[in-house]
Amino acid sequence: MTDAQETAADTSLRITGGAPPDDVAPAPIPLLAPREGIPPVVASDDALARVVAAFAAGSGPVAVDAERASGYRYGQRAYLVQLRRAGAGSALIDPVGCPDLSGLGEVLRGSEWILHAATQDLPCLREIGMTPTGLFDTELAGRLAGFPRVGLGAMVESVLGYSLEKGHSAVDWSTRPLPDPWLRYAALDVELLIDLRDALEEELDRQGKLEWAREEFDAIASAPPAPPRKDPWRRTSGMHKVRRRRQMAVVRELWTTRDQVARRRDVSPGKVLSDAAIVEAALALPPNTHALTALPGFGHRMGRRQLEQWQAAVDRAKALPDSELPQPGQAVAGPPPPRAWADKDPAAAARLSAARAAVSELAERLHMPQENLITPDTVRRICWEPPRNPTPDTVETTLAGYGARRWQIEQVAPLLVRALRSAGCQTAAGGS
Fold first, then answer.
1. 10 vs 15, 85, 155, 400, 427, CA distance in Å?
2. Which of 34, 60, 66, 403 sits a CA distance of 20 to 30 A from 73?
3. Rounded to whole angstroms, how far apart are CA atoms 99 and 417?
4. At 169, is the pLDDT very low, low, confident or very high (cuts 50, 70, 90)?
5. What are the tens digits of pLDDT across the range 174-195?
């Protein structure tokens, strides 16, 4: 064990969540290299088989991380997977050379996986055959414990007394071969996840929040994959400037064409054509490529074939019959924006104000973000369409229907009952 590792094991350096420490913590010790060195990158079936055997023979939870090439490649696939387990050491696996990791996922079935910000990595891990049956999310644990900064580097520093280099988080992980400094960074990301998990479990237990955290972790592990977004082109940045249906059709055609090109070339859509350029073309409705070239984002560096491709998309939208033009806005499920409540339903606005104040006060007392105590959307929904008779039973049932966990219901249901009653909920039209 290195001096830095001994430092990490010294619990006197741990700063608890929820409140500032009584004493100033010592300066963090830089963690410069993995304790066993940088493991070789696994990119062949034989090497993968050895890793599978080693991790099957290991014990305890498994630290897991994944690196993507966001902003460089199309989609969110994993380009490196990092793991660490007692008795197995660390492993770096190249999913390009080993695209099917279901065998590894199988030997780890039943083991607890430790991830930081699990919801970010689980989709790309699922694509290559790795899905946990149980997990511990160190970022979410930090939020529940009241840590003000919950990035991995900040958590390792405040809890374990180290500083981690974070200079390579936004690099193009599809690069091959991966440079040694990047691999060192990647290996260090799982080096202390097990230590961090143990310290955070102890802190959550001290605060009486460990069972709450376990409910949250179980909910993440059991959640189904997110369904595809409906009309993803509507999320184009700057879309609020586009008012007319014909212009919306131009956005849709350009977005769809860009997505097809980006998928074919395996590059980030933003590298093909910017959102700003799409919106400019939609607003201008250029009649030809000459006019298109004059718009921002379609300058002289763009080749004639590309310009013709984008102009063809504009022309298709301009030629659509009115019946095929997109409607001005998606049907929004749930309540309207809160800023409109005072005019639409003053009683609902009063309920929301009372509920928000109560939730905010409780979150402050529990030293956790309000959105982790209960999602703002859940609060809005129950205030907009509350049970006709807001009893503890009806409020708890409503919250459960919106996906609130048991611990969240236990904490916020009494507050919401009082808030709904104080705002005259009994006169509101709603179902029980």
1. 11, 21, 15, 41, 59
2. 34
3. 51
4. confident
5. 999 999 999 999 999 999 999 9
